[in-house]
Amino acid sequence: MAKDRNSHLRQQIAQMAARLMADEGILDYGHAKRKASRQLGISDDRCMPTNAEVEEEIRIFHEIYNSDVQPEVLKQLRQDALVVMRMLERFDPHLTGPVLDGTAGKHATTDIHLYAESLKEVEIYLLNLQIPYESNEKSYRMHGDKRGNGRRKIPVFTLEGPNGLIRLSVFDDEAHNTHVRSPVNGQSLQKANLASVTALLKSS
After folding, report:
1. Amino acid 136: pLDDT
2. What pLDDT digit, counting tens, does each position of 51-66 carry?
3. Nearest-angstrom CA–CA distance, 102 and 35
4. 157 CB burial (10 A radius; 0-12, 13-18, 19+)
5. pLDDT digits over 119-163, tens only?
6. What CATH number is given to the structural domain containing 122?
7. Cα angle at 38 between 37 and 44, to 5 degrees?
8. Same domain for 47 and 85?
9. 111, 95, 101: which is closest to 164 by C-alpha?
10. Strand order from edge to edge, sheet including 164-172
11. Within this chain, do residues 127 and 91 fall inside the same structural domain, yes or no?
12. Same domain, 91 and 36
């Protein structure tokens, strides 16, 4: 009985966390799960779902509640991403995250990875185009890095897109041979280059 109860509570947290991420735009799985468990009054860590379970609930949430609008929202976000990727083609842009995997909703942040010899090169390029941005850092789990596996802080430029934030993570050229781990399942993060995103939009 205890196992069934834990499984039920685990699903409740996953569903609530999915709603928070889809409706309120929370980006961090851990934060969404902790907030969901607090709102539900569940303090048992054994009931905490995995990120993959939350992601699956996000898909289900969109199918149930947003099926009339989510596909169009997703298509628009992908179109916005394509515009930015074309603009930054010299930095070999790759789309990743919810906008690529199809779980993005109306509050989603679009994640694009860039590759450059130096951060300054990207910064000067954005300044020359008179594109306003905010600079920050994002922690990524890396695999295959010559400096060793584990977490690395990567510089980020965040742009105000027409339908949400667009986050540009700037990796050095050597990172082409490095795998970024997915926050959902720990596997290599799915990425799509300019040609792949163009094809994706044509098929949608």
Report:
1. 96
2. 999 999 999 999 898 8
3. 24
4. buried
5. 999 999 999 999 999 999 999 988 765 555 578 899 999 999 999
6. 3.30.460
7. 55
8. no
9. 111
10. 179-180, 134-143, 150-161, 164-172, 110-116, 94-96, 191-192
11. yes
12. no
Query: What are the C-alpha distances in Å from 166 to residues 64, 175, 186, 187, 200?
Result: 27, 21, 23, 23, 19
Q: How many domains does the chain have?
A: 2
- What is the pLDDT of the chain when averaged over all its residues? 90
Among the candidates 43, 65, 87, a domain finishes at 65
Q: CA-to-CA distance for 165 and 162, rounded, in angstroms?
A: 8
Tell me the C-alpha distance between 86 and 92, whole Å: 9
Cβ-contact 112, 167 below 8 angstroms: yes
pTM of the model: 0.85
Phi, psi of 96 (to 5 degrees): -150, 180
Residues 141 and 186 in one domain: yes
Show the domain range for 147: 70-203
Residue pair 84/159 in contact by the 8 Å Cβ criterion:
yes
